[in-house]
Write a structure and sequence with these properties.
48% of the residues lie in helices and 12% in strands. By secondary structure, it is of the alpha/beta class. InterPro entries: GmrSD_N.
Length: 364
């Protein structure tokens, strides 16, 4: 049995930044929460801790070997591999540090009174309302020279996932962030690719808060639940999504085919321009729209017709379309209920079929 091994490294903030700039620190480990979880006050408090010699928690990483950077160039002249540190805990701390050193944000003009001042070599410095470049050189030097501890972890994927859960047990992971960890690294990587699909960013609309909570991935997972013939759909509750997440490594071939289906559906939707349907292109309706798009793909109907139908359905939802719809009736009393989800699918498909009939487009 392989036992997880750990070793400790101490690097300065400046060294961490240099490693990151040289692509030797990876902040995109798939089971991680998205960056941007901290509010301004939390970020400022952390900068104060670095400059004012307060203790800060250790960082944790696993690692892999690589010989090329993202641009295709080699890390070393002899083309040999180097270690890339995959951060599994400490993402918010490192992104806060790196973005501040890069002058991407400034401390606020009215910081928390306790955090507004730091003491370095018996001198007092105010850090309010300043980008990093505007801080006193003594403050800059203190931040960059501050030593941070990194635990380098070597273990099986299961052990790494268990460690991730333990490290984040008190941090309020969202249900989707928990589900992603249950799926494992392989599937988390696949969902990362899907969430970055142009359709997810340019067609459907997710708020900053929804992105922070990984709700875009939840919407993809819900769509998959509806498409999965090997799964008995019960509802969209957090508990049920968690149960479904556990099935990924037990039903691999089927799940891989479903991922291909999701990808081709996103490609189909992205192949046309949808102008006036913003009220339907959001997290709530995402799985239902994805299901209805299957009808167009199956029948070989052009995506421009899909766009025209979706715009017409959007009008009907506002009570302005020619084809009435009872879709809103299924938006009452909880959108996660099985009866409401299936009711929305049925009502959207009914509207779709009637629209196509009016266009003299025959479907089976």
């Amino acid at each position: 049995m392989f036992i997880m091994e750990t070793s400790t490294i101490s690097w300065s903030v400046g060294q961490f930044k240099a490693l990151y700039d040289n692509e030797k620190i990876n902040l995109d480990y798939p089971i991680q929460r998205p960056p941007g979880q901290w509010k301004q006050k939390e970020a400022e408090g952390f900068i104060n801790s670095l400059a004012d010699d307060y203790p800060v928690p250790a960082l944790y990483s696993t690692f892999h070997d690589a010989n090329k950077k993202s641009d295709g160039s080699f890390f070393k002249k002899d083309k040999s591999a180097v270690k890339i540190y995959d951060i599994i805990d400490g993402l918010q701390r490192l992104t806060t540090i790196f973005s501040y050193l890069d002058n991407k944000w400034a401390t606020s003009d009215e910081m928390d009174k306790e955090d507004a001042w730091v003491y370095i070599n018996d001198e007092e410095y105010n850090i309010e309302g300043k980008f990093f470049k505007d801080q006193h050189p003594a403050v800059q030097d203190k931040i960059k020279s501050r030593m941070l501890t990194l635990y380098k972890v070597e273990g099986t994927e299961r052990e790494i996932l268990r460690l991730f859960y333990k490290l984040n047990s008190g941090k309020g992971l969202t249900n989707q962030q928990k589900s992603k960890a249950k799926m494992g690294v392989k599937w988390a990587n696949i969902f990362a690719d899907l969430r970055n699909h142009p359709t997810m960013n340019n067609v459907f609309h997710f708020s900053d808060t929804q992105l922070k909570n990984s709700d875009n991935e939840t919407a993809l997972l819900q769509s998959m639940m509806l498409l999965d013939n090997n799964y008995e759909f019960r509802d969209f509750s957090a508990k049920e999504i968690g149960i479904y997440s556990f099935t990924f490594n037990q039903d691999v071939e089927n799940k891989e085919n479903l991922i291909k289906n999701l990808k081709s559906t996103l490609d189909f939707i992205n192949s046309t321009e949808i102008k006036k349907a913003k009220n339907i292109l959001n997290k709530t309706h995402f799985p239902i729209v994805m299901m209805t798009a299957q009808l167009f793909i199956k029948e070989g109907i052009d995506s421009t017709i899909f766009a025209a139908w979706l715009e017409d359905f959007s009008k009907s939802l506002k009570g302005k379309g020619e084809i009435p719809t009872g879709y809103k009736e299924y938006m009452k009393g909880g959108s996660t209920k099985r009866s409401n989800v299936l009711g929305k699918i049925e009502e959207m498909e009914r509207h779709c079929r009637e629209f196509l009939l009016k266009k003299s487009i025959e479907i089976s």
